[in-house]
Automatic annotation (TrEMBL):
<dbReference type="InterPro" id="IPR036412">
    <property type="entry name" value="HAD-like_sf"/>
</dbReference>
<dbReference type="GO" id="GO:0005739">
    <property type="term" value="C:mitochondrion"/>
</dbReference>
<dbReference type="InterPro" id="IPR023214">
    <property type="entry name" value="HAD_sf"/>
</dbReference>
<keyword id="KW-0732">Signal</keyword>
<dbReference type="GO" id="GO:0046474">
    <property type="term" value="P:glycerophospholipid biosynthetic process"/>
</dbReference>
<comment type="similarity">
    <text>Belongs to the HAD-like hydrolase superfamily.</text>
</comment>
<keyword id="KW-0378">Hydrolase</keyword>
<protein>
    <recommendedName>
        <fullName>Haloacid dehalogenase-like hydrolase domain-containing 5</fullName>
    </recommendedName>
</protein>
<dbReference type="InterPro" id="IPR050324">
    <property type="entry name" value="CDP-alcohol_PTase-I"/>
</dbReference>
<dbReference type="InterPro" id="IPR006353">
    <property type="entry name" value="HAD-SF_hydro_IIA_CECR5"/>
</dbReference>
<dbReference type="InterPro" id="IPR006357">
    <property type="entry name" value="HAD-SF_hydro_IIA"/>
</dbReference>
<dbReference type="GO" id="GO:0016787">
    <property type="term" value="F:hydrolase activity"/>
</dbReference>
<feature type="signal peptide">
    <location>
        <begin position="1"/>
        <end position="17"/>
    </location>
</feature>
Length: 263
């Protein structure tokens, strides 16, 4: 799980591009953004240092003197949210500044632009289990806070350009493709027709697997209709027919849910 990885982007030309590696990233929290193909990246901490008057909650962080205005800071073109930050108030404030200023947090706009800048987010789990007896806030809780603040301030809904990670179907499609590639490398002749998704979070692991299974069933039905209409069917790259979800009830979030009293 990435910490403090709220990242603003100056270039979204490779928003949904393929993975690639770059040597010696500036910090660990930028690794995934760089591997995803983003090249011009600034973190919330870097943004805070560029505009110190934006982060006013922590008295120790407030500048002793009024800094000069920054006119050399490139406009931000989008926001990438990979995981819950350590300082929620700082990240929530600066992300809102970016969205409300159309990527120019050093200036003020009379009217917030809408639609706002593109926002990409992953890791949508609301809660997760650690060593504590009660669940911990996940990135989904941080996203919920951001959505609520944006709605309260602007009267409009925060819109995501894309959502990745469980329970998004895209995540399971990617896993299916990796499994298919592994089977090919092992020389397995028989296609893999059934997948099993094992997890301890019913709100992400199981829900996402069930969504993917519905997607597979709909795709199978559509292929059958096309075959009946034309008599010909183009071969799929994958022969997966179904995905079964398996919930581990003795660990993780499922264990906590099981212990809760039923009304």
């Amino acid at each position: 799980m990435l910490r403090g990885s709220c990242v603003c982007l100056w270039s979204l030309s490779r928003m949904l591009g393929t993975f690639y590696s770059m040597a010696k990233p500036r910090s660990c929290q930028l690794c995934w953004a760089l591997r995803l193909g983003f090249k011009n990246v600034v973190t919330v901490d870097e943004l805070r240092m560029a505009f110190p008057v934006l982060d006013m909650v922590d008295l120790q962080r407030r500048p002793k003197t009024t800094p000069l205005p920054r006119n050399d800071f490139p406009a931000i073109e989008g926001v990438l949210l990979l995981g819950e930050p350590v300082r929620w108030e700082t990240s929530l404030q600066l992300i809102m500044d970016v969205l409300l200023s159309n990527g120019n947090p050093g200036t003020g706009l009379a009217t917030a632009p809408y639609p706002h800048l593109p926002v990409l987010a992953s890791n949508m789990d609301l809660l997760w289990m650690a060593e504590a007896k009660m669940p911990r806030f996940g990135h989904g809780t941080f996203l919920l806070c951001l959505e609520t603040i944006y709605r309260k301030v602007t009267g409009k809904e925060l819109r995501y350009k894309g959502l990745m990670g469980k329970p998004s179907i895209l995540t399971y499609q990617y896993a299916e493709e990796l499994i298919r590639q592994q089977a090919e490398r092992r020389g397995w002749a028989a296609p893999i027709q059934k997948l099993y998704a094992v997890g301890d979070n019913p709100m992400s692991d199981v829900y996402g697997a069930n969504l993917f299974n519905q997607y597979l069933q709909m795709a199978k039905h559509e292929r059958a209709e096309k075959l009946g209409a034309s008599g010909l069917l183009k071969q799929r790259s994958s022969a997966t027919q179904s995905c079964a979800s398996i919930l581990l009830t003795g660990t993780g979030l499922a264990q906590w849910i099981k212990r809760r009293p039923v009304d």
